[in-house]
Amino acid sequence: MPLVEINFDGLVGPSHNYAGLSLGNLASASHGGDPSYPRAAALQGLDKMRHNLALGLAQGFFAPLPRPDQAFLAALGDPQTNLRAAAWSASAMWTANAATVSPAPDTADGRCHLTAANLVTMPHRSIEWADTVRQLRVAFADTAHFAVHDAVPACFGDEGAANHMRMAAHHGAPGIELFVYGKPGGPYPARQHEQASRAVARLHGLTRALFIEQSPDAIAAGAFHNDVVAVANEGVLFTHEQAFADPEGTYAAIRAALPEAEIVVVPASAISLTDAIKSYLFNAQLLTLPTGEMALVIPGEAWAMPAVRAYLDGMIASNGPIRRVLPVDVRQSMANGGGPACLRLRVVADPATVDPRFLLDPARIALIADVVAKTWPEQIDPADIGRESLATTVRNARAALLEAVELQEVI
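Below the sequence we write its predicted structure tokens.
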């Protein structure tokens, strides 16, 4: 079977809560302390997966990680601060940060390579990678087709595919990989270290990689990851004009490496950087449909913003490379700082080489939705974090899911 793009979405975990743990993530900070709705959040995510599956696209999922993280709490002497909330965080739902993925056509050994992200900038995310890599090694256990790497050393912060893009004539063709890194100096941390990006490129055996500096203005405005201001798919880059430190140099390098590249630049005069970040327009899934059309799956919040809606209407009317705009409801994820792009990890592979338990069809989505409806907490208030009764509910909900989908070994 030819290589296809499979989007693996993270299922929102039963401990989903708003603790405002992510410095520089404006949505997360603004909702810190609000009640959360884990059941609704997970069902919204499943609806997005169902939506993409109905478009004729390959769709997979990853299970939530074990929470609360008792080993983390024990190592810190059972803290009473936000570090306790960190042990409960369901942030692994944003699988764009799970790993960086290089498809087989780009790598020296002809295998698809995945390197788990260390996520060291934020305590609540830094504890994820060991459990993430264990799940990746189950899903992509076929070593003839996949190589799964541990995270790069923690001295170099790596945030995974949220700061990585790939462009190629089509998914199965050799492509160029774009690694976007930041430099510290503004009010918020630059989460992606250049040396982490270069290490991943070496681990994956890449020969066609570009290393691009993210705009300091974008980071300062709240673009904590590159995927908040730019997204690529096959031969198209869709980007805000203030995404990169050297935009014209970036575009020239892309065109030199991939002459057929089409670069759609959204000017700040049409959509300000503030509105781009607030709407999560670029934190979208840019997808090639089975018809060959390219579609942009955006959060409903972007569609509802007048300046963004006006730009998108004009873009579609202009007959450019992006032909459809498809809004989806991921409000619970958006309130914690993650749009449609945050919720998925893109893997170009032959689906027959992936563990089938991680691949979805309508019946499997219905099975997961039934478990969520029966076991996920309906609401979590800030005061609930740390209560043993909630911890038991969360553990039991995850165990019920793993039993239902026959993935008990990722416990």
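The CA atoms of residues 66 and 233 lie 32 Å apart.
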